Amino acid sequence: MERLDKVLSNLGYGTRKEIKQVAKKGLIKVNGEIVKDNGMQVNPEVDRISINGEEIFYRKYIYLMMNKPDGVISATFDNRDETVIDLLEIEHQVFNPFPIGRLDKDTVGLLLLTNDGELNHRLISPKWKVDKIYYAKIDKLVTDSDIKKFESGITLDDGYICKEAKLEIIKASEEGSEVMITIQEGKFHQVKRMFEAVDKKVTYLKRVEFGTLKLDEDLEEGEYRELTDEEVATLKGF
Ligand code: URA
């Protein structure tokens, strides 16, 4: 059980003081009855609560899929740059979500955000071997020899030996190539550093899959949506 005003204020319906005023005006109902006591104990999972005639949609956790745009950083706060949190509506910001893993400032595509710490922990842990699939443009010719090197474990500039990665060539040309790459790790700048290790440069990077989820093609860059219950369930069922 929780205080009514706490539940409503956590969901972004105002400060506790504001909610007290709203309650006084008789605008809050719990299970169909007007409740003027803002401190009433409620069970938000069970009780039907409405404010101004609108029933609240209570949930403890939120799960968002964003098509991250270029130029925005995957952090909750930054002094200089716009963050992915800045792109969220207030009604989602009130849940204090954070990104699951990171994409570089210039990387676009699938980014998950949640306030579910347990799921975050599992999805970023190397133990769970979550596939992350990226589409990348490369400045040079990507060859079968690169595919083999990625398969057997690329050594990064700091000596770290990457786990096996799957590289598929979509287009190979001296002027520039297009590839899909699947990795299960999330080292800092990993894909870019893997290509640097074979003397090539990533010129465009987009994450298209994360675990069981594919980037929703209806999401323009900068847009996001909540995951469906089914998507959350498959993600947790990993
Ligand atoms: N690898 C990178 O180099 N950058 C990303 O943003 C993600 C993976």
From TrEMBL:
<dbReference type="InterPro" id="IPR042092">
    <property type="entry name" value="PsdUridine_s_RsuA/RluB/E/F_cat"/>
</dbReference>
<dbReference type="InterPro" id="IPR002942">
    <property type="entry name" value="S4_RNA-bd"/>
</dbReference>
<dbReference type="InterPro" id="IPR006145">
    <property type="entry name" value="PsdUridine_synth_RsuA/RluA"/>
</dbReference>
<dbReference type="InterPro" id="IPR018496">
    <property type="entry name" value="PsdUridine_synth_RsuA/RluB_CS"/>
</dbReference>
<dbReference type="GO" id="GO:0000455">
    <property type="term" value="P:enzyme-directed rRNA pseudouridine synthesis"/>
</dbReference>
<dbReference type="InterPro" id="IPR020094">
    <property type="entry name" value="TruA/RsuA/RluB/E/F_N"/>
</dbReference>
<keyword id="KW-0413">Isomerase</keyword>
<feature type="domain" description="RNA-binding S4">
    <location>
        <begin position="2"/>
        <end position="62"/>
    </location>
</feature>
<dbReference type="Pfam" id="PF01479">
    <property type="entry name" value="S4"/>
</dbReference>
<dbReference type="GO" id="GO:0003723">
    <property type="term" value="F:RNA binding"/>
</dbReference>
<dbReference type="InterPro" id="IPR036986">
    <property type="entry name" value="S4_RNA-bd_sf"/>
</dbReference>
<keyword id="KW-0694">RNA-binding</keyword>
<dbReference type="GO" id="GO:0005829">
    <property type="term" value="C:cytosol"/>
</dbReference>
<dbReference type="GO" id="GO:0120159">
    <property type="term" value="F:rRNA pseudouridine synthase activity"/>
</dbReference>
<dbReference type="InterPro" id="IPR050343">
    <property type="entry name" value="RsuA_PseudoU_synthase"/>
</dbReference>
<dbReference type="InterPro" id="IPR020103">
    <property type="entry name" value="PsdUridine_synth_cat_dom_sf"/>
</dbReference>
<dbReference type="InterPro" id="IPR000748">
    <property type="entry name" value="PsdUridine_synth_RsuA/RluB/E/F"/>
</dbReference>
<dbReference type="Pfam" id="PF00849">
    <property type="entry name" value="PseudoU_synth_2"/>
</dbReference>
<comment type="similarity">
    <text>Belongs to the pseudouridine synthase RsuA family.</text>
</comment>
<protein>
    <recommendedName>
        <fullName>Pseudouridine synthase</fullName>
        <ecNumber>5.4.99.-</ecNumber>
    </recommendedName>
</protein>
